[in-house]
Design brief:
CATH class: Mainly Alpha
Shape: globular
Radius of gyration: 20 Å
Helix content: over 70%
CATH superfamily: MetI-like
CATH architecture: Orthogonal Bundle
Number of domains: 1
Largest sheet: none
Distance between the termini: 45 Å
CATH topology: MetI-like fold
Length: 225
Amino acid sequence: MNWEALWLSIKLASLTSVLLLLLGIPLAHWITTSPWRWKFLVEAVVALPIVLPPTVLGFYLLVAFGQKSPLGTFYESIVGTTLPFTFGGLLIASVLYSLPFAVQPLATAFAGVNPRLIQNSWVLGESRWRTFLRIVLPLSRNGIITAFILSFAHTLGEFGVVLMVGGNIPGATRTLSIDLYDQVQALNHRSAAETALFLLILSFLFLSVVTYLNRKQGANGGPDR
């Protein structure tokens, strides 16, 4: 087991999951409550990484992060370094690539909250913001946990986007999935089997937790009870 790659993967997955919650909660709530007739286009953009080949997304991110792009030029003028083949670039790419795995569970959880509870809160004089904090978020707890777990697991196992945007730099962008690929290429099958088994067990545990939460929520009659 490459412990350096494991630590980098956990660090990347943790930061990505936290950022996705900060970004995904308001986005999912807007998707759930907005009356805008064209919001399905936003939903399609959010879900695009599910069907888009990772190498295609990685290529466009490389173009967007490049020194000749406005984003790349702006970032380099502030930080002094480029985004491609750095942990920062890898983090941004991971957030974009795992976005639907956070937004969709959150939107499902928000949509499942009984609207009568929200309306009653408004009638009692609570603002929309306080209603969201005191009613919607607590009743969507399982959806928030699911979004975090799926984002973490998806980031931990991603390969194509990581390789395209981050490359294979030890201690900087070499994640556990990239290290597994290197072990197979080097015919180090025993070490590759250990890494693969670790990722398999971890993925199984993550999905078991998500399945348990969903079944528990269904058994309780949904998030509004």
